[in-house]
Amino acid sequence: MKRHFSETKPEMMDQPDADPEILEDDLRNLRIINRCFGGLSALRNAVVPIAMRAEPGKTISILDLATGSGDQPVSIVKTFRRLGKGVRITAVDRNEIMLNAARGHASGFPEIQFERGDILNLQYGRESFDIVSCSLAIHHLSRSNGVKLLHEMNRICRLGFVVNDLSRSYIGAAVAWVYTRLTTTNPMTRYDSVASVLRAFRKEELAEMAVEAGVQPVRIFTAPLFRLVVVKEK
Q: How far is it between the farthest Cα atoms of the chain?
């Protein structure tokens, strides 16, 4: 199945003139989708084993790229609290509307701080965070920029990185179409949910990109539902 990607036709949430109210409602919808369709659990299940390799008592530093609505870092903090392990998360996004929504969602979680930044122009030094994570963002990028992102994530992390994204398939796109038509009238959620699946990479493509980025060996595995996870452990 060919990847349906065009840099000249971005998803609705990526358009500079995106309606703020529609975008904020879309972010609320995406929190539900992440919770119910495995996005949060896929990230947690990949990050926790890497964190457990750190020395006892260490506060784990995590850089969360393209944080969106902030539900992923909140989920990680909740998990670390249950485990009795300290964590400090820097959550980055280039969209100020998303950052404001994320700050509101993460109220009560002082472990998380938010910064505005471009994931393709990261200014962090080598091995400046224990773990770098990126959820549901690499499918927004061209293949070459996806390779660049993998390379940068590897440069910045000390223990490892996790990419949590979708797996491209017609079945996944059909499920997204049906689910969004049954649950929302938001045009952004309806369009982007299907487009995201069709723009996503396949397992073999991500493996090739990891080689090009010089970050091998990595583990790439599927997770429910229609998820692909890339894990690099140093």
A: 48
pLDDT at residue 210 in the model: 98
DSSP E strands, the chain: 60-65, 87-93, 112-116, 129-135, 157-166, 219-223, 227-233
Label residue 68 by pLDDT band (50, 70, 90): very high
How many beta carbons lie within 10 A of that of residue 66, not counting itself?
Answer: 23
Among 146, 191, 229, which residue's Cα sits nearest to residue 9?
191
Residue 5 lies in a domain: no
The domain in which residue 145 lies consists of 37-168+201-233
Query: Is 20 within a domain?
Result: no
Q: What is the reported pTM?
A: 0.96
Cα-Cα-Cα-Cα torsion 28, 12, 154, 132, nearest 10 degrees, comes to -10
Q: Is residue 212, in this structure, part of any structural domain at all?
A: yes
Residue found by looking up tokens 């369709």 in the block: 37
| pLDDT tens string 188-209 | 999 999 999 999 999 999 999 9
User: Is residue 1's pLDDT more than 90?
Assistant: no
Q: What percent of the chain has pLDDT over 70?
A: 100
Residue at 206 is within a domain: yes
Structural domain count, the chain: 1
CATH of the domain at 121: 3.40.50.150
